[in-house]
Amino acid sequence: MLRGARIANSIVGIRSVVDEDVVLERTLIMGADFYEDEDDLAYNRQMGIPGIGIGKGSILRNTIVDKNAHIGSGVRILNESGIQHQDGPGYYIRDGIVIVPKNGILPDGTIV
Question: How is residue 55 annotated by DSSP?
Fold first, then answer.
């Protein structure tokens, strides 16, 4: 499900949810095993985590997003510092590429 996103040199997998004003550049999104229903979305809100997919206004560059990842609104994954190797909360960087693992969670406003 794509909603007004700008996608360049990227691959978007099956059942991916990409919200409005999202920018994807040189990014691979694996997709999801399922679409979330209203009960899933209500549970996510109760737990304070974003839904599966890429939230509104997020920017991802040189990123791999594994299946069922939850990336909130306003997230910026740009690795502007050029970090080559690092582990962070909900992501890791290898050879300068940011990887969000399967079922990973990046809350609203996260900057990598």
Answer: -
Greatest extent of the chain over all pairs of C-alpha atoms, in Å: 39
CA 97 to chain centre: 13
Helix and strand numbers, DSSP H then E, in the chain: 1, 11
Question: How many CB atoms sit inside 10 A of residue 48's CB?
Answer: 10
For residue 57, give both structure tokens: 């206004």
4/70 Cα distance (integer angstroms): 19
Q: What is this structure's pTM?
A: 0.91
What does each C-alpha distance from 53 to 16, 27, 64, 76, 112 come to in angstroms? 6, 13, 13, 14, 17
- Among 8, 51, 52, which Cα is nearest to 30's? 52
Question: What percent of the chain clears pLDDT 90, i.e. is strictly above it?
Answer: 96
